[in-house]
Amino acid sequence: MRTLADIRARTPKRAFFRGQAQHAMLVILLSAGALALLRDGGGSYWGNSAMRWARLAIWAAIIHQVMVVLVWRAQLHFALFTRLFGAAALTAWGALFLPFLFARPALVALAGVADAGSLGTDRLTQFILGAGLIIPSIWAAHSVVKYFTLPRALGGDHFFDRYLNMPMVREGAFKYSDNAMYGIVFLGFWGIAALCGSWNALVLALFQHAYIWVHMYCTEGPDMQLLYKDG
After folding, report:
1. Which of 40, 56, 80, 151 has the fewest beta carbons closer than 10 A?
2. To 10 degrees, the CA torsion angle through 61, 207, 144, 134?
3. Half-sphere exposure for 199 (CA within 13 Å, toward CB)
């Protein structure tokens, strides 16, 4: 049985920063590209301009994913959260993680509503496309909660041995995609953009979906290599 204590003992501490130079370079390029593509159409909603909502959406994603790097790596290499919070470590982490998780689509939606209609007037096609993307996204999110479970989605294998030794999930959306969270759930951002008929929300969807794969290849992938390379 794999144990986090054994993995910690054989892993050099310099691995804390593994992949993060690439992460930094890619997020600078992605955010700069997204900001350059945004259009100020003069729209606003709920007291903020469309551009301000869009910038907030970008910042929320960056803060969220940098926070994941810091917490996962601090826990993986130094057991920080389990030392501070014991059996409640995942609960404490969830209290930090989940508000940002929900804020990300909410801010894209707010940016889209403020910029609604900027994709043109073919609203029926946009609505059909949006619904066609939102439905599988919701189905995949349900699969994450039901089959993968929220503790594992929070990175439970960085915290406790019982999650580290659980089998792969092959039910629900995971029957069709090993990474349903990033591959299918994130289609919801594109669906939001289509439902709003918003150019800015479309740019944000591209940014969000590209950036989560940066997380996969620069943070989660290297961590999985450490956690499961002997599995």
Report:
1. 40
2. 120
3. 15
Reference 23, options 50, 54, 62; nearest CA is 62
d(CA 108, CA 50): 10
Give the closest residue to 185 by CA, choosing from 220, 129, 139. Answer: 139
- Would you tell me how many other CB atoms lie within 10 Å of the CB of residue 177? 15
* pTM score: 0.95
Tally the residues of the chain: 231
Q: Any bridge partners for residue 45, and if so which?
A: 48
pLDDT digits (tens, 9 = 90+) for 198-207: 999 999 999 9
Percent pLDDT > 70 in the chain is: 99
Answer whether 209's CB lies under 8 Å from 183's CB: no
> Looking only at Cα atoms, what is the longest distance across the chain?
60
Residue 12 in tokens: 């050099």
DSSP notation for the chain: ---HHHHHHHS-GGGGGTTHHHHHHHHHHHHHHHHHH----S-EETTEEHHHHHHHHHHHHHHHHHHHHHHHHHHHHH-HHHHHHGGGHHHHHHHHHHHHHHHHHHHHHHHHHHTTTTT-S-HHHHHHHHHHHHHHHHHHHHHIIIII-HHHHTTGGGT-HHHHTPPPP-SGGGGT-TTHIIIIITHHHHHHHHHHT-HHHHHHHHHHHHHHHHHIIIIIHHHHHHHHTT-
pLDDT in tens, 76-100: 999 999 999 999 999 999 999 999 9
